[in-house]
Amino acid sequence: MSRDLDQIAMLAVKARLRTRRVNGAKCRIRLAMMMEEKATGKPLPPGLSVHELRARLQPHWIALGYCESEWPSDRQLKYATTGR
Prior knowledge:
Order of helices and strands: HHHH
Mean pLDDT: 79
Structural class: mainly alpha
Oligomer: single chain
Helix content: 55-70%
Strand content: under 5%
């Protein structure tokens, strides 16, 4: 990981300790999106399906130490990215 990603990961760990369970899924999604943007140098393209989005964000959740049961559901992914 680059230095930027290391800093984001450390912020995530600190935020994870302070984040309420209610906001957890949305925070995990946003954090993984930021990490993906830092890793590729460009934001995620709009219009990705939930499955494509999950495939792109999954490695970041793994890198942050989230177990599979803590990953957001498809419904949470769709809501966090579209608002509906």
